[in-house]
Amino acid sequence: MKDSQPLSRDSLRFYEKRGLLQARRSANGYRDYPEEAVQWLGYVRTAQQLGFTLAEIAADLPLLTQGEDAGPTLRATLKRKLADIDARITALQGLRAGLAARLAETPDTGTSCPLRQLP
């Protein structure tokens, strides 16, 4: 995976427990990951950086095996996530506006606390 730190053994086992990665066991009990695991893990890490939860990633992993047929479904998934992020931004902007208003009402000195006057 380019431009990323290598995954630790614990990270690999965590992803395996979550069903995002499968390893074969060798005769001595060691885990043997298939070659395509690097691609899968790259997808998982990129999806996490884009705000997808591990549950969302696990639900969408079958898309990777569909090849070009996954395009419309993948676009719909990305659009849904973008709408979720936009909704969170709107909520955070409202939260910020409320906090800024309380800050503006708070004197630099004295004991008045606008948090006591919550609506």
TrEMBL record:
<dbReference type="InterPro" id="IPR000551">
    <property type="entry name" value="MerR-type_HTH_dom"/>
</dbReference>
<keyword id="KW-0804">Transcription</keyword>
<protein>
    <submittedName>
        <fullName>MerR family transcriptional regulator</fullName>
    </submittedName>
</protein>
<keyword id="KW-0238">DNA-binding</keyword>
<dbReference type="Pfam" id="PF13411">
    <property type="entry name" value="MerR_1"/>
</dbReference>
<dbReference type="InterPro" id="IPR047057">
    <property type="entry name" value="MerR_fam"/>
</dbReference>
<keyword id="KW-0805">Transcription regulation</keyword>
<dbReference type="InterPro" id="IPR009061">
    <property type="entry name" value="DNA-bd_dom_put_sf"/>
</dbReference>
<feature type="domain" description="HTH merR-type">
    <location>
        <begin position="1"/>
        <end position="63"/>
    </location>
</feature>
